[in-house]
Amino acid sequence: MTQRSRRAATVEGRRPDRNQLRIRLRAKGLRWTPQRRLLLDVLDRLEGHVTGSELVDACRELDPGTTPSTVYRTLDVLEELGVVSHSHGHDGREEYHVRPRATHGHLVCDRCGTSWELAAGEADPLVVAVRQRRHFDVDVGHLTIVGRCATCAAQIAGDRA
User: Most Cβ neighbours (<10 Å): which of 4, 55, 121, 146?
Assistant: First the structure.
């Protein structure tokens, strides 16, 4: 996991019940496979945000034969089951939220790369304004606002002085 992902790891949702997952997978006509178990084992060790490639690397540490396509297909299934959710970082990369508790967006500093979660309630004024003015419903879970954190803004202001 990258330093940025570790810094952004603030979600504290519950670990999925494996027996319930097995039942839900079978109800969808899917099997409980060693590859799905492996990815769940990796996800159990994580919190917060992680990229798909970081998950592939973590799975390969436990099973070198893991293929990216298997990890991404399993992530799609786990997202349907509510175990993970995804969004896109400011650089366009897909990030997975492990055990998401609530829908949230992200604030990202374009200078230092630090990110913070933006609670849906914090985004409400923007969401309402966009809905009223543009007749557009915002998916807060995919909302990323890029700007400057207070520390970087102060450093830049100091450099200009």
Answer: 55
